[in-house]
Amino acid sequence: MVVPVTLTNDIKSAVDLSNQAADEDVKKQFANAIRLYRKSMESYLNAALIIRNTCAPFVERAQKLKEFSGEIDQEVICEGLPEMKRIHQLPLLGLVLPPWCIQAATVVSGRKVCYTNDITGIDSTKLVLSQIISEPKAKAASSVLLHGPTGSGKSLLVRAIASKWPEKSVFIVEMQTFILGAVEHDGTKVAQMLIRNFKKHNTGVLVIDNIDYLYETDHPDIKKAPVAAVKAVIVALFKGIHEKKNYKDLVIATANKPWLLEDDIKNAFHAKLNFPILSEEDRMAIIRGELAKIRCPTYHEEHMRDLVKKTERFSRYQLLRLVRFALTRNFNNIEGIQLKEDAERLAHLTKDDLDAVASVLLADIPEEYVTRYTEFVEKNPTAN
């Protein structure tokens, strides 16, 4: 794509005028500075309009890329596949769109995760969680633990709450990131401030993502005090909700290693929902559902059965990545895509594509995890 000349001129003009305005500001010539700033802003707005109009034809293509590309894990997927290494050196979106409009297209083509359609295979869990979110008092539950292996869909599900209940204010706290903030500030005050802000919203939902991180034992010394401070506040929150039983404040926690949780918080949840390790039939259903969305004429039922046998201890996320990585093997000449119709290759793959990726993509659930998690589920019955 050729960058419009007027766009270059507008950006250059905006920068020059901004610099001139700054100089006038230093000289205390405020009237001149304001006049130049206004002209600079006009040039910036003109440039923004041109970028938006220029990007419009690429939005549909960008959407397809975002849906089918997934996250690129070069180290894993390129092992043994030399022809794929070049493809994964840059984000797929960047290979199709001009660098100056990647951000605009990404924003425009962004799509919320849909609670109903985007997370499949855990219908019983979704049903119970839906009932709790809709009527916590009727279900006598306003503190919920979602537990299951990494990649099972816990975080994705809580991020999709806003799509089904747009009237609710959803506060999502990723605990590892939150602790980094607590290291720089007073952990107790930071956690208390979070809870105060949450309680200001009558329809709020607070999500503590990866709560089991607070119970890890290998934190570096710099994190031990913040972790202890935040944990004390979070435990007090769940205990208070459990004891009051007014079912007003809805708080959801997710855990990859629920056996790390101590009794003080484990017993404070009104409901525990299990995201089970996928059985062979579960994996078959997911792969069949994904392949139904695309064109794969050389892939038949017996091929699916063979593929499923190679995916033992694959999480839901890893299965989705398998199909998306197979799709990316079509992108040998993606830089040459000129028309949006060319992007139809994104919806087509062959048996060789799937077999090649399945041969190098590894199970992401360790055997030790399966043993520990199975024991936990047997000892802790869930609501679903």
Automatic annotation (TrEMBL):
The gene is 8031482. InterPro entries: AAA+_ATPase, ATPase_AAA_core, MIT_dom_sf, MT-severing_AAA_ATPase, P-loop_NTPase. Coiled coil: none annotated. Its EC number is 3.6.4.3. GO terms for cellular component: cytoplasm; endosome. Pfam families: AAA. Residues 140-279 form the AAA+ ATPase domain. It comes from Ixodes scapularis. One of its GO terms (biological process) is ubiquitin-independent protein catabolic process via the multivesicular body sorting pathway. This is Vacuolar protein-sorting protein, putative. It comes from the Eukaryota. GO terms for molecular function: ATP binding; ATP hydrolysis activity. Keywords: Hydrolase. The keyword tRNA-binding does not apply. The keyword Transit peptide does not apply.
